[in-house]
């Protein structure tokens, strides 16, 4: 497993330490990975979606806080599962902040190609 973020090395190291991240964290400072995946960005319409408000409330209630903004604070996240040979097994791109991939779908994707 690998995470790719938009922050600088100091921010990435703090994230790894604060969250006890047990996997590799890479930085996409030049937006190369984000452009390949065609990442979505946070826009005004995504801020007014009720789902975004509920996701934000759940996150805050769970004790999560955004500590610092990365280089592209409006870039939304995505979950990808890649197989050897760059085969894309699964992709889910957020349409609003907190629109995370469905865990059951991710687990199916981790089981490999059908």
Structure characterization notes:
This protein has 114 residues and is α+β, with helices and mostly antiparallel strands. It has one domain. It is built from 5 helices and 4 strands. The strands form 2 sheets. The protein has a two-stranded parallel sheet with strand order 1-2. A hairpin with a 3-residue loop joins strand 3 (78-83) and strand 4. The longest helix is centred in the middle third of the chain and has 12 residues, at 50-61. The chain starts with a strand and ends with a helix.
Task: Provide the fold topology.
Layout lengths: L1 E4 L3 H11 L4 E4 L4 H6 L6 H4 L2 H12 L16 E6 L3 E7 L9 H8 L4
Parallel strand pairs: 1-2
Antiparallel strand pairs: 3-4
Which keywords apply here?
114 residues; two-stranded antiparallel ribbon
Query: What is the strand content?
Result: 15-25%
SSE order, one letter for each helix or strand: EHEHHHEEH
Number of separate helices: 5
Would you count the extended β strands for me? 4
* Number of domain modules: 1
User: For the CA atoms, what is the radius of gyration?
Assistant: 15 Å
